Amino acid sequence: MGVWDKIEAEDMSGSGNGIYFVPGKYPKLRLKESKFKSADETYKKSDVVIFILEVLESEVPDRKPGSEIEYIIKERKADGKPNTFYLKNIKKFLMAVFGTDDHTDIDRKVMDLVLGERQKGVGALLSAVATNIKIGEAQKDFTQVEFKKYEEAGKATSSARAEA
Q1: 115 closest CA partner among 32, 49, 17
Q2: pTM attached to this predicted model
Q3: DSSP assignment of the chain, as one string?
Q4: What is the per-residue pLDDT across 30-79, written as a single tens digit (0 to 9) for each?
Q5: DSSP 99-111
Q6: What is the CA radius of gyration of the chain?
Q7: 24 with 40: CB under 8 angstroms?
Q8: At what angle do helices 108-115 and 86-98 cross, to 10 degrees?
Q9: pLDDT at site 160
């Protein structure tokens, strides 16, 4: 097999240029695609789940509406040690996508549907807030992103009135 034999079939979806979350508020995002790359496919030899999000509304000047952001969750840290938050971070994201508070709703079957050909969850609307935190002994900067299911302002107001 030659070095370029796979170029015709290369998947061109996603930005592919590392557009990540930076601190700020993202009032409205749309899940565009979900991907899984096995450790054999990545240069750092770590399983990776990638959620590609389209920015619909943003308070971050560098992430304008229409741009794409990759939310990447790696099974291993930069030092090669296991990421103990790998599965938890995937679950938290998908709980927001599917609007559930019950973490047991996200199981192996859901993962197969989300990352498989069906791409379950694509099109879901989310809101996010990204903040920088310090992690590890070295207190390295890390951008933490909290997601929630998007709710239109009108709907939230209506719900609040109904409860009052």
Answers
A1: 49
A2: 0.79
A3: --TTTTGGG----S--S-----SEEEEEEEEEEEEEE-GGGSTT---EEEEEEEEEE-S-TTS-TT-EEEEEEESB-TTS-B-TTHHHHHHHHHHHHHT-S-GGGS-HHHHHHHHSTT-TTTT-EEEEEEEEEEETTTTEEEEEEEEEE---HHHHHHHHHHH-
A4: 999 999 988 887 777 888 999 999 999 999 999 999 999 999 999 988 88
A5: T-S-GGGS-HHHH
A6: 17
A7: no
A8: 80
A9: 33
CA angle, residues 33, 38, 39, in degrees to nearest 5: 135
Q: Tell me the C-alpha distance between 46 and 76, whole Å.
A: 5
Identify any residues that bridge with 57 across adjacent strands, giving them in sequence order: 28
Q: Taking a C-beta distance cutoff of 8 angstroms, is the pair 155, 161 a contact?
A: no
Q: State how far the Cα of 51 lies from the Cα of 122, in Å rounded to an integer.
A: 9
| pLDDT higher than threshold 80 for residue 107 | yes
Tokens describing residue 116: 């498989």
